[in-house]
Each structure stands twice: as C-alpha cells, then as structure tokens.
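Appendix C: a fully annotated inverse folding record. The material below is reproduced so that readers can follow the format used throughout the book. The structure is listed first as tokens, followed by the designed sequence.
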C-alpha cells in the first residue's frame, strides 16, 4: 500500500474542497494517484457535497438517545426548516444520536468516524447531502453518564427544535422528564446558584449598584436593593431556584425533593443558537441549477 503524506492530503483538499478524512481515504483507495482520487470522490458524491460546505446551515433538529448508562444529545443542521421535517433527515439525526450514545466518542471528528451500516456517520451525512440537496452537518454533541441510582430525563420541543437532557439523582424517570420539560421551556443557565461563576456575580452586582445609584437612593438602601435584585437574578439563572413550570407554587428543587431526588446536571440545545443566519433565495438557486 502506498504511503500517503500530509502534503498529498492537503493538495487534494485544496483542489476539491473535501474534508481531511475523505481526502486521505480517497488517496489510500487509489494508492496516491491524485486524479483517480478526485474521480473516486466524485463517484461517491463527496465532491458534490463539498461544494455546499460554505453554505449556512442553521435549521435542523436536535435529539436525545440513550444506551444503558450513557445518553447523547446531538444537533444536526440543514439549510431549511423544510428539510428538517424530511423523514430521511429525521432518521439520520436519530441514527447519529444513537451511535454517539453507544460509542461515546471524545470529539466531533471521532463522532463522524463512527461506524454505520453504510460506512461511517460522515458517509451517511454526505449521502444525505447528495440526495436531499442541502448542506447537512453534525454541529455538536454531548454525552452524559449516570449511575444505576440516577435517572435520565429528556424532552424534545417541536419535534427537536429544542432538546434537553437531565440527570436526576434518586426520584424516578417521570420526575427527570418533568425537569427536562422545564429546562426546555425556561432555559436556566446553571443547576444551582453555587455554580454561577464569581465573575458573573461581580459583573451583575456592579451593574445593579450603578442602576440603584442612578435612582438617588441612600447608600444603606442601595446595598439592600442590590442584594435583593442579585438574589432575584440568581433565582432566574438557577434551575433549582426557578418556579417549577408545572407547579409555580414550588421551586424545581422542592418538586424534585418531594419525589426523593435532586437535580445533578442538565444540557439544553436550541437548534441554530449562535449561528448567524443568512437569507437565501432558493427559487433563484433552483433557476441557476436548471441553467435558466
């Protein structure tokens, strides 16, 4: 078998715009022949998929799947919301989440390299991109482990536009699911106020102090006002301190405690958060594809 250098991989990537793993695989298959490697990539549809790589994919779905004591939450993106409701896309997202939960990869590259019935997760994404005609990408994932006396709770809002994964110590799965629903709806930042970083508290205290000073209150009153408002800020950020969405008369912590448990951790994904979306005229793109 021919030895493939990093320089060859880079040259192929620069020529056709594919990922590093795909470039290396093509060169290995063709024993380092650059032209044959390009043909190989085109035949597999990988080159066509790579042409879409500069598009913005900010729609899609998130999903949660579990395997024994490991759970995975993933976000897979598409360019349009229409594709996100496609059965093929939905099945792909579930397949990726299930495989990630099963294998527990350490990073995104490892997740893409996971085996699938058609080859790898990356191969499945490329095929879906080719068939569906939009850029599809695995944006992020997180795996979470639990012990036998802990419970996973998950919730998908609007079929996966928002996904949440919760671990509750003690209690039961129904309680964990209730908390996951709350997390999806209310979007807390921390499990409890002890997790709020000191720099976040210091910044908020400074802002609240300036606000109170601007109201012309005496120093002693300002101090009490700031502490009161800071406490409210912490209760809004902390899951444990929030009013439980299904019963506002008690906090989340009290609800879980009434079931014999406490919240250990949570993860919440909202599809497309942090991605700068762009407006695309898809009718114009269709016209271009048809040569009009």
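Designed amino acids, in order:
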């Amino acid at each position: 078998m021919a030895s493939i250098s990093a320089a060859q991989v880079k040259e192929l990537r620069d020529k056709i715009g594919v990922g590093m793993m795909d470039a290396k695989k093509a060169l290995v298959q063709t024993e380092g022949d650059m032209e044959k490697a390009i043909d190989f990539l085109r035949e597999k549809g990988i080159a066509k998929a790579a042409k879409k790589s500069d598009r913005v994919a900010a729609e899609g779905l998130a999903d949660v799947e579990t395997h024994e004591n490991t759970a995975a939450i993933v976000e897979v993106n598409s360019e349009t919301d229409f594709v996100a409701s496609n059965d093929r896309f939905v099945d792909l997202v579930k397949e990726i989440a299930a495989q990630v939960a099963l294998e527990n990869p350490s990073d995104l590259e490892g997740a893409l390299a996971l085996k699938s019935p058609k080859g790898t997760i990356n191969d499945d994404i490329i095929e879906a991109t080719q068939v569906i005609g939009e850029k599809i990408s695995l944006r992020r994932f997180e795996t979470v482990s639990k012990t036998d006396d802990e419970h996973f709770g998950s919730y998908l809002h609007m079929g996966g536009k928002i996904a949440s994964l919760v671990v509750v110590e003690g209690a039961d799965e129904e309680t964990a699911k209730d908390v996951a629903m709350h997390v999806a709806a209310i979007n807390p930042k921390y499990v409890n106020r002890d997790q709020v970083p000191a720099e976040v508290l210091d910044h908020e205290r400074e802002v609240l102090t300036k606000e109170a000073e601007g109201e012309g209150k005496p120093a002693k009153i300002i101090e009490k006002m700031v502490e009161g408002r800071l406490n409210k800020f912490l209760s809004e950020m902390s899951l444990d301190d929030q009013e439980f969405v299904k019963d506002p008369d008690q906090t989340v912590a009290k609800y879980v405690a009434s079931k014999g448990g406490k919240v250990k951790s949570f993860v919440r994904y909202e599809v497309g958060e942090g991605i700068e979306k762009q407006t695309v005229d898809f009718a114009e793109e269709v016209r271009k594809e048809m040569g009009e």
